[in-house]
Amino acid sequence: MSKAPNPKIFKPMTLKKYLQFLLLGLLCLLLCIPVVTIGAATCSVYYVALKILNDEADVSVVKLFFKGIKENFVQGLLMFLISVATLGGTGAFIWWILTKSERGILLVCLAIGICFVVLVLNIFTYPIIGRYENTFSNKLRNTVALAFTYNRETLRCTGFVAAELAIAGVLFRLNLFAGCVSLLFWPSLIFYTIACFMAYIFDKVENPIQYDDNGDPIVAKDDNENKNQNEEIES
User: Are 68 and 130 in contact (CB under 8 A)?
Assistant: First the structure.
């Protein structure tokens, strides 16, 4: 059985796209200052980032960013409150395990599992809010569905983000000034990483591959024409 081509997850970056992601990271940091706008700003980052990665025309970062905040403010705020509750609860649980005199391996494994679930929840939900129009409860359900359906991508994305967060934490511990300077760059890197994985998953969801009775992928007519044209040029 032949398989459909599997595109690369990480999108190639041009200087323009790099500067756009850098600007997105700085805008997000700026809009995080009021605190109440953190959730909406995060949703808006992915609203714009996915347009950049999909090579949409006339992507005005600043204009689209504030448009995304306006459209996703309520759901972004709800998700931010959930993030605070889940991350705070997870942190308290880990602190309790680490300070408990007789902690067992089961509790440690449970803490790791909870950390993973909370991280996945926060990785997936904000891009879904920024990308689609739906009720908040449906978006939470879609988060769980996509995370389980694309479990390999979920594990890889979570691993990359966890590593990037760990590196940022190490920078702060080694040198406070270096850690503060890194704030100008590592949010953009994290947003780029998550946006690439989510763009890959969203493309799979929005453009499902259809197979014929023989199990071969059905290629669109335009793709066949392009393929034939390429063959004629090569010959």
Answer: yes
Asked whether 154 and 120 are in contact (CB, 8 A), the reply is yes
CA torsion angle 18 23 26 31 (round to 10): -140
> Which amino acid is present at 177?
F
Tens digits of per-residue pLDDT, 65-75?
A: 999 999 999 99
Nearest to 75 by CA among 132, 18, 148: 132
Tell me which amino acid residue 121 is. Answer: L
Token pair of 13 as six digits:
């970056």
List, in sequence order, every residue forming a beta bridge with 217; answer none if it has no partner: 211
The structure's pTM equals 0.80
Q: What is the pLDDT of residues 137-147, one digit of tens each?
A: 999 999 989 99
User: What average pLDDT does the chain have?
Assistant: 82
Phi, psi of 19 (to 5 degrees): -65, -35
Q: Which residues pair with 211 in a beta bridge?
A: 217
User: What are the backbone angles phi and psi of residue 201, rounded to the nearest 5°?
Assistant: -70, -45
Burial call 29-63: b when 16+ CB within 10 Å, e when fewer: eebbeeeebbbbbbbbbbbbbbbbbeeeeebebee
> How far from each other are the two terminal CA atoms of the chain, in whole angstroms?
28
How many helices and strands, by DSSP H and E, does the chain display?
9, 0
